[in-house]
Design goal:
One of its GO terms (biological process) is glutathione metabolic process. By secondary structure, this protein is α+β, with helices and mostly antiparallel strands. The protein has one domain: Glutaredoxin (3-Layer(aba) Sandwich). It has 9 helices and 4 strands, in the order βαβαααααααββα. It has a 4-stranded mixed beta sheet. Helix 1 (14-29) packs antiparallel against helix 5 (106-121) and helix 4 (91-104) crosses helix 8 (154-169). It starts with a strand and ends with a helix.
């Protein structure tokens, strides 16, 4: 029986950007199948008491920048603390990822997620802009125009809504969020605990 881990993401999250490569490597090392779930983080915040960045208290906004800089240095991951196009609507990018997953599978969709995150946090690009999203998809040898068109269909919206419904039922209130063996893990700073869970599950399977 294969091991699976739900991976709830919001493309604008800096912690998705800093954590995804490590998560994907862990999943591959422990032979865990990733269930990629792009979700509507605005809806998640509204239902869980979370606030968009601009509405958070000044001290919370200030400490967020300290933590981002700290993690960027620690991980050796380049990151613009205050990118030109942030805050930014995440729905267009999330729906593009859903479209890629439906058309090309999870691995391609994960690569697209990483490229979109990098575009925002390291390349000063607007991930709510259709031309930018198309160019990012094209850079991965995906048909950006076709994916962009698909991302606006009712089927993709239904899948996106279903992911968000599942996130709400799972008690998700931030991103990235992982659910493995019935247990939740919030944030890229919980990957050590998730790895321990992967290792325990792999050992029990042998």
């Amino acid at each position: 029986m294969s091991l699976t881990c739900d991976y709830f993401v919001a493309p604008p999250s800096p912690y998705v950007y800093m954590g995804q490569a490590r998560f994907v490597e862990l999943a591959r090392r422990y032979d865990v199948q990733i269930q990629l779930r792009p979700m509507d983080i605005g809806r998640i915040f509204a239902g869980s008491g979370g606030l968009p960045l601009a509405k958070r208290a000044p001290q919370r906004q200030a400490y967020r920048l300290v933590e981002l800089a700290r993690w960027s240095r620690y991980l050796g991951v380049p990151l613009n603390l205050e990118p030109k196009y942030f805050p930014v609507a995440g729905d267009p990018a999330a729906r593009l990822i859903v479209a890629a997953q439906l058309a090309h599978g999870t691995d391609k969709a994960l690569a697209l997620t990483a490229a979109i995150s990098t575009a925002l946090w390291a390349e000063e690009r607007n991930i709510a802009d259709e031309a930018t999203l198309q160019a990012i998809a094209d850079s991965l040898s995906l048909d950006g125009a076709s994916l962009l068109a698909a991302s606006k269909t009712a089927g993709v919206q239904a899948a996106y809504d279903a992911n968000t419904d599942d996130a709400e039922r799972a008690g998700v209130f931030g991103a990235p969020w992982f659910v493995f063996d019935g247990q939740p893990y919030w944030g890229q700073d919980r990957l050590d605990f998730l790895e321990r869970a992967f290792a325990d599950a792999q050992g029990a399977r042998r």
